[in-house]
Amino acid sequence: MNEDGQAAQPQESHFVLGETLKPMLTNSMGSAIEIFDTKGIPGGGPPPHKHAWEEIYVVLSGEMDVSVDGKTRRLGPGGYAHVPANTPHAYKTLDHTHFLTIVSRGNASKFFKQVANEVAMDPPDIAGVLRVGASHGITFLV
Questions:
Q1: Does residue 37 lie in a domain region?
Q2: What is the pTM (predicted TM-score) of this model?
Q3: Residue 5: pLDDT above 70?
């Protein structure tokens, strides 16, 4: 049990394209949203892509460039970006960036888990990421 009296969740994490994502809340836990504690390395992040769920990034420390529908903004601590469903987007962490990734109901947690377990990341097997992404409704625009 944690300090809130709730059963402690296993500390799972997924390494995907230069970032480590720790699920905090997922659809499989009964939630309509998913939240990931995300830490990126310099140059980390996904190529341009789109999917059927909304996404929000909230920077806790560090900096990242986020592109949403062709417009790029630099985010620092306290900055955030909203990505509407089916909108092309990408980001790049500029340093050791710590941020929250928040998504509406979709396949994000399933995608992160499968790609981390099945696709080589050092160096990244982009064809493998594309294959797994397609099976979860993610279209990479590369």
A1: yes
A2: 0.89
A3: no
